[in-house]
Design brief:
Layout (H helix, E strand, L loop, with lengths): L1 H21 L2 E9 L10 E6 L4 E7 L5 E7 L3 E7 L6 E6 L8 E4 L18 E4 L2 E5 H4 L7 H7 L3 E3 L5 E3 L2 E2 L2 E4 L2 E2 L5 H7 L5 E8 L16 E7 L7 E10 L3 E11 L3 E10 L8 H6 L13 E3 L18 E16 L2 E24 L7 E25 L2 E24 L2 E11 L2 E14 L2 E14 L2 E6 L16 E25 L2 E23 L5 E3 L7 E20 L2 E18 L2 E21 L2 E13 L2 H4 L3 E5 L2 E4 L7 E14 L4 E13 L2 E8 L2 E8 L4 E13 L3 E18 L2 E20 L3 E15 L4 E17 L3 E14 L4 E14 L6 E8 L6 E7 L3 E8 L4 E9 L1
Parallel strand pairs: 1-7, 13-16, 20-35, 37-41, 40-43
Antiparallel strand pairs: 1-4, 2-3, 2-5, 5-6, 8-9, 9-15, 10-11, 11-12, 13-14, 15-16, 17-18, 17-52, 18-19, 19-21, 21-22, 22-23, 22-51, 23-24, 24-25, 24-26, 25-28, 26-27, 27-29, 28-29, 29-30, 30-31, 30-32, 32-33, 33-34, 34-35, 35-38, 36-37, 38-39, 39-42, 40-41, 42-43, 43-44, 44-45, 45-46, 46-47, ...
């Protein structure tokens, strides 16, 4: 309570300071028009402090040409008004306490912008079509360290803890630096590593498409950021180095090195630490795709190749006891001339993470005690990602791309567990190992012979190998009714599995531009995928020998092929501010499945419709509607009917006669960013209804269960929504957001139909303020409610989390950072409550103009040992306590290159 009282007291003091300042402020109103008297929207208006020679206030005119500035009364300012194509306007004025009428300003056409002359004007915000350019120095405080700090200062931008960026409520899909991809356009690596001092401008690229010949028929809804570097950062090496040490052998070493010129740019990121700073996590490794998305996925068809990350715990700072991470990442772009460009990256990482937890598990439709499961896992992984790309564009009408992307790793996950259920204790020791490998190649050609016709051809080929093996040892005999083991306790099972996948896709597109508001697109495509799977179970005996089971129900030898031939027809039409894009995709499928001497399969023809509608009220204000019907097909792992051991109490048996699922997908999104008053409002609703959905039949025997996939007769559905509002004032920024999701899934447990309903809600409020550039304070409050209901059980959980962050700059060269969160976690079903809090602090010293910085860091000062979470699956409800890193200290030295 004392900590919470301190947070509110600090908030009150900041508010009092701001209120005292606000009493001296006056509102300066005006309007900007052209020589004909028509209002100019998006004109930039600045008031320059004539004493400090800095921007005192800044605004952008609205649709009526109006602007609003907040200034200190009695001071003299220089007013600057600019709009591209017009002569800039300047005048001096004194801000008065009262203002009778709005100031009227007329801009005259700039004759220099005609003919062959080009006028370049430095404006805080420049809007040109689908591109919005922000001049970073106008919005920043001057003490930002990394790109993420710069983006947080820009109106309409959000950056989360993982480095993911949203602009006006939309997720950024790709990040570029000086027009070139930065590690596949990854926002996390850029926001966490690119120095703030190098950033000149930030460009928001809406409807982004990096293929020149497709610019006239662009259907992309991608959002990209282009970070433009300062001129004095080019043709030189820049970046930073950090070295840190602490008690108990804590260490951190980090390096960022960048080089950019007209032809070459090179980026290097190196990191090694055991303090939980995840420069590149295993989640990031599996997330990287090389940018080579499925071609058939664009036509409403989805063939799901099971991921090779199944069963691997994804360690984060708030879920692991110990984290040891090493990273080496190199990205390059080389453009020897205007016709050809080479690009690529290599990322190598090594992790050694320890996780621990205690969970209470309540099984759906099962009577008896709750299972208590304690677990300690160690995950070791060495992985590599490699990509090489070549782009050849001899002229604006032709572009050829070739890309090759490879991923490989060596992963070991050892797990020590104890299960206590129904007065029985079971000690479990397991080891999962795998060495997945994949290589994917892509060739693309785009050709526009004239303004009316555009052709494209794309071919991809992917080869993937997976070999997940599972070694299980238990003190209680596992699966006694299914697996005929002959040994004694401890019982030891070995599950071996190999999956090979070969996938080839090709698509040809023809675009015909009928006129300025209509165009049509024809597509032909094919997806050919072949897979083979072999698996076996054996018992490891005490004398070192093995007992191999010859029962066909315990082995798999499967060949699986999937073919999809499709034709697509799309039409795009524009009615004023409304753009409609309906489409039809005709698919011919063939599935063949051969295993254990029998063959299954089917042929099917499906017509899948889609429509996209977008209404642009104005720039940065739109409403999007998307509806489509998609067909989802499963891969070989769900079709292999031989038993697979998944865990100490879970078996899986596939179903060779699975059919596809039908998904009806509806999405409605609203975005509105008002630059006149810096109000950002966004929201969305998504609904999905799934027919013939693949779910599991679950057969329980005590604690053990066998999962078998099937096409469920009842429809499953999910309804989710989100809304957020963000408003910037003179020294304040306030935000409110919420998200909710309700899902209904049907399955079958022990011959009984079961309906699972999950309703999750989360709400967040935030307030941030800056005082005299010396004190920055952020206060937030988050609350979440999770309700899980099945036929015979239900659970309700809630978590309340106030948070605070303080940044204080003092004695000119010192900076103090601290962040705090307090959690109250409640299981309202049984009335239990637990609390935990986290406090981190950092003190740094950097003499003005120096390249050296010295820093002392303290993490988890309160030495919290664990945090609470809950989860819900088709057969069990769990509450967890995750053990986290204990308190540690670091002393570090930073040097700017």
């Amino acid at each position: 309570m004392k900590r919470i009282a301190f947070i509110f007291l600090l908030t009150f003091l900041c508010g009092a300071i701001q209120q005292a300042q606000a009493q001296q402020k006056v509102v300066y109103l005006g309007e900007v028009r052209d020589s004909l008297g028509l209002p100019l929207e998006f004109a930039n208006v600045m008031a320059m402090d004539t004493t400090k020679k800095t921007i005192a206030s800044f605004g952008v005119t609205n649709k009526q040409g109006q602007f609003r500035l907040l200034l200190e009364g009695g001071k003299v300012y220089q007013l600057k008004v600019s709009f591209i194509g017009f002569v800039p306007f300047e005048r001096y004025f004194t801000a008065k306490d009262t203002q009778a009428l709005p100031v009227s300003i007329q801009l005259n056409n700039d004759e220099r912008s005609l003919g062959s002359f080009e006028v370049v004007t430095e404006m805080p915000i420049l809007i040109q079509g689908d591109t919005i350019t922000y001049k970073a120095d106008v919005f920043t405080q001057g003490n930002e360290r990394k790109l993420e700090d710069v983006l947080k200062d820009l109106p309409g931008f959000e950056v989360d803890e993982d480095g993911q960026v949203k602009v006006q409520g939309k997720k950024v899909d790709k990040l570029l630096v000086d027009g070139k991809e930065f590690f596949e356009g990854d926002t996390k690596l850029a926001t966490k590593n690119l120095p703030a001092k190098a950033v000149d401008k930030v460009q928001v690229l809406q409807n982004f498409n990096d293929v020149g010949p497709l610019s006239g028929v662009n259907n992309s809804e991608q959002l990209a950021l282009n970070i433009q570097l300062k001129e004095d950062m080019k043709n030189m090496v820049f970046g930073d180095l950090e070295l840190a040490v602490g008690p108990e052998e804590r260490y951190k070493a980090h390096a960022n090195v960048f080089y950019y010129d007209k032809k070459t740019n090179i980026n290097f990121i190196g990191d090694a630490n055991n303090v939980g700073d995840l420069a590149f996590s295993m989640s990031d490794y599996f997330r990287f795709s090389g940018g080579l998305a499925s071609l058939a996925g664009r036509s409403g068809s989805n063939f799901r190749i099971s991921s090779d990350q199944l069963g691997i715990p994804m360690a984060e700072r708030n879920s692991a006891k110990e984290l040891n991470n090493q990273l080496g990442a190199l990205n390059f772009n080389y453009t020897p001339n205007s016709k050809i460009r080479f690009s690529g990256f290599a990322i190598g990482s090594k992790v050694d993470n320890t996780l621990g937890s205690i969970s209470e598990r309540q099984y759906v439709l099962q009577s008896g005690e709750t299972e208590t499961l304690t677990s300690e896992s160690n995950v070791q992984s060495t992985s590599g990602l490699f990509k090489l790309g070549i782009t050849y564009s001899p002229n604006a009408s032709l572009q050829l791309d070739y890309n090759v992307f490879s991923r490989l790793s060596n992963i070991e996950n050892s797990d020590l567990q104890n299960s206590f259920f129904n007065n029985t204790s079971n000690d479990i020791n397991s080891m999962s190992t795998q060495q997945p490998f994949s290589i994917e190649q892509q060739l693309r050609t785009f050709y526009a012979p004239d303004e009316k016709n555009v052709f494209s051809a794309e071919v991809t080929y992917k080869s993937q190998k997976q070999d997940p093996n599972y070694d299980l040892s238990t003190t209680q005999r596992p699966f006694s009714a299914i697996i005929p083991m002959t040994g004694n306790s401890p019982y030891n099972l070995l599950q071996l599995k190999n999956i090979n996948t070969e996938q080839a896709e090709a698509a040809i597109n023809y675009y015909r531009i009928l006129n300025n508001t209509n165009h049509i697109n024809f597509k032909l495509g094919v997806n050919q995928t072949s897979q083979d799977l072999s698996s076996s179970i054996m018992e490891k005996l005490d004398n070192g020998s093995t007992n191999e089971f010859n029962d066909p129900d315990l082995n798999n030898l499967v060949d699986y092929t999937f073919s999809d031939y499709y034709f697509g027809l799309y039409y795009k039409v524009k009615f004023g501010k409304l753009v409609l894009n309906p489409g039809l995709n005709l698919h011919q499928y063939n599935i063949e499945n051969q295993q254990n001497g029998s063959a299954e399969g089917f042929d099917k023809t499906l017509l899948l419709p889609s429509i996209n509608a977008k209404y642009n009220f104005r720039n940065s204000h739109s409403l999007n509607l998307n509806y489509d019907v998609s067909a989802s097909f499963t891969d070989i792992q769900n079709a292999a009917k031989g038993i697979i051991v998944r865990s100490y109490n879970s078996l899986f048996a596939g179903n060779p006669v699975l059919d596809n699922s039908w998904y009806h997908n509806l999405r409605l999104n609203y975005f509105n960013f008002n630059m006149y008053n810096f109000l950002n409002v966004s929201g969305g609703v998504s609904y999905q209804k799934r027919y013939d959905d693949i779910t599991n039949i679950i057969d329980f025997s005590g604690l053990e269960r066998v999962n078998t996939p099937t096409n469920i007769d009842l429809a499953n559905e999910n309804l989710s929504g989100n809304a957020s509002i963000d408003k910037r004032f003179d020294h304040y920024r306030v935000s409110l957001s919420g998200n909710w999701s309700r899902s209904v899934t049907n399955n079958q447990i022990s011959d009984l139909a079961n309906e699972n309903v999950s309703f999750q809600q989360g709400y967040k409020a935030g307030l941030s303020t800056t005082v005299l550039k010396a004190l920055e304070f952020n206060f937030g409050y988050e609350v979440s409610f999770n309700n899980y209901t099945a036929n015979s059980t239900s659970s309700k959980f809630e978590n309340h989390k106030p948070t605070a962050r303080l940044i204080l700059r003092f004695l000119k060269d010192f900076r103090f950072d601290s962040d705090y969160e307090f959690n109250t976690y409640k299981n309202t079903s049984n009335g239990t409550t637990s609390t935990y809090d986290l406090l981190n602090a950092k003190l740094s010293y950097r003499k003005e103009g120096s390249k050296w910085e010295f820093k002392t860091t303290a993490m988890n000062l309160l030495n919290t040992t664990g945090i609470r979470r809950d989860s819900f699956s088709e057969s069990l409800i769990s509450t967890y306590e995750y053990f986290i890193q204990k308190r540690y200290f670091l002393f570090s030295v930073n040097y700017d290159l």
